[in-house]
Structures are given as C-alpha cells and as structure tokens.
Specification:
Elements: H1 11-44, H2 54-64, H3 69-79
Helix pairs in contact: 2-3
Length: 88
C-alpha cells in the first residue's frame, strides 16, 4: 500500500544525501583549483632556449681565456667559411 506524503527516506537517508552533495562539490572545486594551478604553472615556464651558435661558444671560450687571440681568429675564420687552414 502506498502512503502518500511519505518518500521512504529516514534521517540517515537525508544525512547521506547531504554528505554526498558536499563531497561532490568538494571534488568539483578541487578539480577546478588543480586545473587552474596547472595552467598557471605551464604559462609561467619560458620556452626552451636555443642552443648557442658556434660563434657564441667560441667567443665565450675566448672571453674565459681558454684560447688566445690568434686561435680565436683562426677558428672564427674557419667557422665563417674562410680560407684559413684547418688542422685536426
């Protein structure tokens, strides 16, 4: 027999429904926050830098004193495709 006006839920049913609603919205909000953090973190990272050109590496070595002026000019001319001699 149906009892009109009685939905069949007790106090525990309402408590479970309320708790599941809070958990659902907590998960939705957490997912939104994590997605926003991920987007912000990836937007901040700078694109990978290009590797230095050979002339730049040569200039850095000359500036650090690893090679002298004559060797610098010789290697620079070789890199630019000049007629300088190349020794291996």
């Amino acid at each position: 027999m149906m009892w009109w006006g009685y939905d069949g839920m007790s106090g525990w049913g309402y408590a479970l429904m309320g708790l599941s609603t809070v958990v659902f919205w907590g998960l939705v909000i957490t997912a939104i926050v994590l997605a926003a953090r991920h987007v912000a973190r990836t937007a901040r990272t700078e694109p990978p830098s290009r590797p230095p050109r050979p002339q730049e590496v040569l200039a850095q070595r000359f500036a650090r004193g690893e090679i002298d002026a004559e060797e610098y000019r010789s290697r620079l001319e070789t890199l630019r495709g000049g007629q300088g001699s190349y020794t291996a």
